[in-house]
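pasting for ref
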Amino acid sequence: MEPLRVLELLVSTDLGGGPAHVHALAAGLPRPEFDLTIAGPAGGPYEKAFRDLGVDFVGIRADRLSPAALLRVIRLVRQRGIEIIHSHGKGAGLYGRLAARLTGVAAIHTFHGVHHERYPRLYLDVERWLTRWSDAVIHVSESQAAAAAALGLAPGKRSRVIVNGVDAARVRAMAEGAPLSRGALGLEADTLVLGTVARFDPVKGLDVLLRAFATLLERVPAAQLLLVGDGSEAPRLRGLAHDLGVGSRVVFTGFIPDAARCLPVMDLYVSASWREGLPLAALEAMAGGLPIVATRVPGHVDVVEDGVTGVLVPPGDSDRIAHEAARLLQDPVRRRALGEAGRQRVEGRFALARMLDEVAALYREIGSFRRPRV
């Protein structure tokens, strides 16, 4: 039997949950059954990661409004006999579902976070319209699905929850087999390290985290903050660290491939995001045995069991983040207990193999009754 031909259409190849999710699909779905093509803006670090897997990558600017981008998607579908377009991100979701409608192939869209506070009304109206053209809409956590349903972005039986997963054994192998030392990252040998891995975007609340860290230093002056990632907010965040007087205690690493190699230098993982889908970086931190301090928002509430694997705090509350982080930094016994509980939770509930099986089953289901009209 011929493999099912799937186009994974991305809005970005930079650091983020969507590209990481698609990388996991490309690496883990059985190739004799699924023939994947990946398309998205060229130049991001994930472009190389996709090519290193031996998967066909096609550069398409799905991150901006352009009739040419839509035409390129349609041409790609017809040239490669694509049977399913699986889109990730707003622009990709627009082009993917329009192209599917125009070529008669199946359309699946995954929301990797529903940041509705940042969406204009027109976008929500367009997205509700696009859901009518979707054979399936995937939400990566139960809390995201609930938030989406309230906005009319969970179309009944076509709405599916496929919870994100990580390969905990691979995370530990990277952390233990090829760790980055504190010295290599510019950290002091005897410091207590708070860390996070994130795309530098306003939704990640990294400005809140910096303010929390400035407060925390009053109680734990030996602490350092490790920010792993990059993005459009980087200059502003560096400036804020300087203005808060904590620039010498904050390390900006930039993008690091296989960021799990940074986990061994951290004592505590902190996420101040305003909203998440289901954060892969937090799952990897838990797989690495780190306790978590995170905001009580969709996505985080699915991952962190408050008081068991970490602590949940109100979003935007830098004082509360500082308080809970300081308490954990000063209590190594509790940190170890929370970290071990988190490791067990990831292995039991957030396995990558389960996620791959559920995506593959959906592809088979959708592909069984939709064929292209070219």
